[in-house]
Design brief:
The complex is a heterodimer of chains A (112) and B (115).
Chain A: E1 5-7, E2 10-14, E3 19-24, E4 30-38, E5 45-50, E6 56-59, E7 62-67, E8 72-77, E9 86-94, E10 101-102, E11 106-111
Parallel strand pairs in A: 2-11
Antiparallel strand pairs in A: 1-3, 3-8, 4-5, 4-9, 6-7, 7-8, 9-10, 9-11
Chain B: E1 5-7, E2 10-13, E3 19-24, E4 31-37, E5 43-50, E6 53-56, E7 65-68, E8 75-79, E9 88-95, E10 105-106, E11 110-114
Parallel strand pairs in B: 2-11
Antiparallel strand pairs in B: 1-3, 3-8, 4-5, 4-9, 5-6, 7-8, 9-10, 9-11
Amino acid sequence: ILNVEQSPQSLHVQEGDSTNFTCSFPSSNFYALHWYRWETAKSPEALFVMTLNGDEKKKGRISATLNTKEGYSYLYIKGSQPEDSATYLCAFRDNYGQNFVFGPGTRLSVLP
Amino acid sequence: NAGVMQNPRHLVRRRGQEARLRCSPMKGHSHVYWYRQLPEEGLKFMVYLQKENIIDESGMPKERFSAEFPKEGPSILRIQQVVRGDSAAYFCASSPPTSGRREQYFGPGTRLTVT
């Protein structure tokens, strides 16, 4: 059974603060890690697909790093804005079934 | 260019009835995935289909659930004899033929409530 964990479960920050959260996944048979941003009542939106150890991806104020050897990825948000409030999901894919196994998400609330 | 469409958006069924959820992929997409989000849980993969083929159904419950993606028309997720535990949000995603699971675009979801 593939176990993907995310921490913290929820996070409240003030507007302008920078923040980060973690996705932990199995370190063996790694194929790819996906990050999604999921606003309430909307569809999950793809942020990043990361495949190589040491990968760093950036999209505006959001960036992510990947460590496949130890099985974790960090998502960073610089200068949080209220519109960043959402649940951030990571999803792990392995070499075998290539199924997406999603973590439970980190629910971010940015207070104005 | 319309995105992934799902209907209905909300569906209420009594225990024992059948639920049919529809997913129309984005234009040009031939791969469809179904996910279920149970209350207070993340998304869980259910099934991966291409036109007229089930590629991976490892996440589908063994009984009462089935999925199809016919040559013409939307993909259908069918739940027979629904029970309260089936109440969840069901999302579908689609991807173009060249990307496979790598590039998935999600629909807005169908929220199923079983009373």
